[in-house]
Amino acid sequence: MKVSKETKQGRVLVVGSINTDLVARAPHLPRPGETIGGHEFSQVAGGKGANQAVAAARIGAQVAMIGCVGSDANGAQRVKDLEVEGIDCSGVEVHPTQPTGVAMVTVSDDGQNTIVVVAGSNGELTPQSVARHEAAIKACDVVVCQLETPWDSVHATLALARRLGKTTVLNPAPATGPLPAEWLPLVDYLVPNEVEAAILAGLPVESQSGARRAATELQQGGARNVIVTLGAQGAYLLVEGGEGRHFPAPQVQAVDTTAAGDTFIGVFAAQLASRQPLEGAINLAQRAAAISVTRAGAQPSIPTRAEVDNAT
Ligand code: RIB
To answer: Name one Pfam family in it (predicted).
Structure first.
């Protein structure tokens, strides 16, 4: 069931990537230099930004997106897919020469994946593009960013959102190194997974105690609240004021973990936007992410509100 605009509560703006995922399923992930036979191929809608927007929309938020696609068939299809979800794409620009972003995804039979992203038009999302769509930032409650678009545009978004008094969520994915020092004070909710938290904090994160140490370090760097997602081990929340809490994850049989993190972020942002209590927001986000790992593909795996409610 689609949620009508009138019944949607919070308003989420996602600034981020839009990709077409080329997905091969194979018995295992290939090692360097190895060629293996796959047994299934699919082409599906993906991109961390677009996945997060879809997750927020399917759970019931009013969603708008700022991004950049190419002037090609993939770009037109990706925008159509988002509009079908009720997402306002007036902030999605079309680049005249760069192709729409593509992700080469390999999924092993035990549900693990590797992803290589070729940014294409996502790399053309500039601070000027963000500024052109300031009205969309003004109109939302929560702004969500990731790192699949140029860092200067992410920083411009966070700075503008902060100036306009919006709640900011940063999913630092993919993480390649520590963030510039001036970024974290612009972030209300920093949501890395365990790998990203380790890279950002420069500390090992293999357990809850590692997550707590990394979250503390990132909070000391200026992030108001930190949530480290730990896959099957759940999530660790460190709120402003220093109180920490572990949230165990629902245990499921993984088919494909692609976009599980994006589902968590989108649902969490939607709950924040509709002013739900933090614990409930994390809980719902975990339940939605758990459903997504039982299904194949990025956007095809993201559940609706009814599916999350019926699963509990
Ligand atoms: O987080 C999953 C996403 O990462 C995929 O959909 C792929 O497009 C890459 O952006």
So the answer is: PfkB
pLDDT tens digits, one per residue of 163-191: 999 999 999 999 999 999 999 999 999 99
Location of structure tokens 């795996």: 301
What is the Cα–Cα distance from 105 to 158, expressed in whole angstroms?
29
Name the token pair of 288: 């939605």
Residue among 6, 7, 13 at smallest CA distance from 167: 13
Per-residue pLDDT of 210-220, as tens digits, reads 999 999 999 99
The pLDDT value given to residue 242: 77
Q: Which CATH superfamily is domain 5-18+48-99+122-305 in?
A: Ribokinase (3.40.1190.20)
Question: Residue 121: which pLDDT band, with cuts at 50, 70 and 90?
Answer: very high
- Measured CA to CA, the distance from residue 144 to residue 271 in angstroms comes to 13
Test site for ligand 1: of 115, 144, 147, 292, most ligand atoms within 8 A of the Cβ: 115
pLDDT digits (tens, 9 = 90+) for 243-286: 899 999 999 999 999 999 999 999 999 999 999 999 999 999 99
Q: Using a 6 Å CB cutoff, which residues line ligand 1?
A: 17, 19, 21, 46-48, 51, 103, 115, 117, 148, 258-259, 261-262, 298
Amino acid 38 reads: G
Residue 262 falls in the annotated catalytic set: yes
pTM of the prediction? 0.96
Q: Is 257 left (phi over 0), alpha (psi -120 to 50) or beta?
A: alpha
